[in-house]
What we know:
60% helix, disordered C terminus, 2 helices, 2 strands
Amino acid sequence: MDFFDKLGDTLINAGKDVSKKAKDLSGTAKLNMDIKSKEDFIQKQYAEIGRLYYEAHSKEADAEFAQQMAIVTEAYEAIAKMRDEVLKIKGARVCPNCGSPVPDTAGFCGKCGTPLNQMPPQQGNMPQDGPQNPMQ
């Protein structure tokens, strides 16, 4: 009987050790996940700080940041050109009033109702002074 008592105690102790290690592993995994979450949050804040700085100082960049500012500006310009190409491929243009994409054949913007029938499709991506009067 003494053998079985010792075996039972050993199994109970081993079970407790496994349980403790599982709790420790679970706690460590949770902490690592929380750390990663905070690091991601910090990265997003850095990006937001950079975006705000760019918007506030892109025209008069310090020499220290001039190259990065120029790179970002070029990227924005490239994105605008690519968006124009996408619109051309889709046979669409941009409403001069609200900026929504509308088909080249549309007479009015589906979002804001601005008349578009006299606006040539190739000029659809350039804002105008206002909607044109269709009665002229």
